[in-house]
Amino acid sequence: SASAVEQTIRVEVKRLDNLMNLIGELVLGKNRLLKIYDDVEERYEGEKFLEELNQVVSALSLVTTDIQLAVMKTRMLPIAKVFNKFPRMVRDLSRELGKQIDLEISGEETELDKSIVEEIGDPLVHIIRNSCDHGVESPKERLAAGKPEKGIIQLKAYNEGNHIVVEIVDDGKGIDALAVKMKALERGLITEREVDSMSDKEAYSLIFKPGFSMAKQVTNVSGRGVGMDVVKTNIEKLNGIIDIDSEVGKGTIIKLKIPLTLAIIQSLLVGSQEEFYAIPLASVKETVRVPVDNIYTIEGKNVLRLRDEVLSLVRLSDLFGVKQVFESGDQTYVVVINVADSKLGIIVDSLIGQEEIVIKSLGNYLQNIRGIAGGTIRGDGKVTLIVDVGMIMDMAKEIKVDIRASMESNSQMAKKEKPSDYKVLIVDDSKMDRTMMQKSLEPIGVTVIEATNGIEALNIIKSGEHSLDAMLIDIEMPRMDGYTLAGEIRKYSKYRNLPLIAVTSRTSKSDRLRGVEAGMTEYITKPYSPEYLENVVRKNIKLV
Questions:
Q1: SS3 219
Q2: Do both 293 and 404 map to the same domain?
Q3: Is the bond preceding residue 527 a cis peptide, omega within 30 degrees?
Q4: Which of 161, 170, 468, 500 has the fewest Cβ atoms surrounding its Cβ within 10 A?
Q5: The pLDDT of residue 222
Q6: How far apart (Å, rounded) are the C-alpha atoms in residues 268 and 389?
Q7: How far apart are CA 276 and CA 269, in angstroms?
Q8: pTM score, two decimals?
Q9: 515/496 same-domain check
Q10: For residue 155, what pLDDT band results from cuts at 50, 70 and 90?
Q11: Do residues 376 and 359 make contact, with C-beta atoms less than 8 angstroms apart?
Q12: Whether 138 contacts 101, CB under 8 Å
């Protein structure tokens, strides 16, 4: 008989890691190509080649996604590799503790990325030891409570969207929320006021505090206050979530929700002042737009009343020390993030949208920045920082800024009382043309700032020194033309509605159309009368 052909091949993990990095670069390239296609489609609407280009871009996008999934699957291992060591561990523990415990395993064929499989073993060991020691009662106690002598611990794994869920369920005595609160109070981990206002669900999360233990005596299994805090740290390191649900006398359910892979994630892109950040979508509960009047300050903490609950609130710019150059008006965007049962509202200036991002390490020099989990390169080629949601929760407790008061004081400062409070930036490489524009604006009495080219104008905008009300832009300039300058300005959320008035000798219809596409508000052709320019500026800055 013919010898069987070998169906498997052994490959070094290093090669698979390298392949995953290359796929990450391919995804970044795909994002960049999609962005370029959108720009081309706007500029050449109705052209025949667009359809062909669309087909190629769509096909490439599909193939990239398929390759990404295929490579991810090559790195997958069944979770049974971790689960298989627990039956013996539970047998040994039940003998040591004088209990009768059965371990039921399901879903062991569920697959996880190799790097996560290696990291998840230790947290599961701690949780199962806890279930055996603190959860399942002795045979005598179980009989007295009307339960069978033998306790059962269930270990389940299953897929849920882009995540794997691992559940550890025991039919023991459950967690007494009041006892946990009292123990935490005794250890000085919480105050008496927090004890009164804390829900049972919040009390369960206290067991993750460093140094916390409910054991009455120190044994080989428990009582040293080391374990559950390590579990939480390790799970959050994997961008995972840990959740506890318990009922006294019935048992406890501990649920771990872990992403399938650590390399590529879905994220929500947000803007804070002129900076962009990516928040992992798995941690985003909802996004809302709320009036500033709905923000209150209670005991130095900013809170928001959202439907029937009160939510802690923090501004993303305050967390990262970003200079507050402008405010978002009467309404503001709030991103509600959650880790297990803890929720936090983060005020951002703009919501950019959802995007698949490739996580890149920040390297040795920048690896320990609080609140930042890594970086990514977006479709326009710029670097965006990825927010560490778990760390943000802790950092928010240290922020003591009265958000509403600062918003109101800034908006009052921004109110313009006289014409000279209005600022107009003139951008033209010709000294004579700049002087003519300035003379035309003299009757209005506005403050005029000058720039000789697009680069200089962009630097004035980036510095944030001047709050501009309008810009007069020449089209033909060295270093950066007017179209490019208008496109760059429109990328800043602060200047999305800033009146940009083109003042140029280009008179053709295609030039006007290109000006509109670039983001120009008005298009004035030279020569013009001083009165006409004056009236256009008056109308655009609403100074009639």
A1: coil
A2: yes
A3: yes
A4: 161
A5: 54
A6: 12
A7: 7
A8: 0.60
A9: yes
A10: very high
A11: yes
A12: no
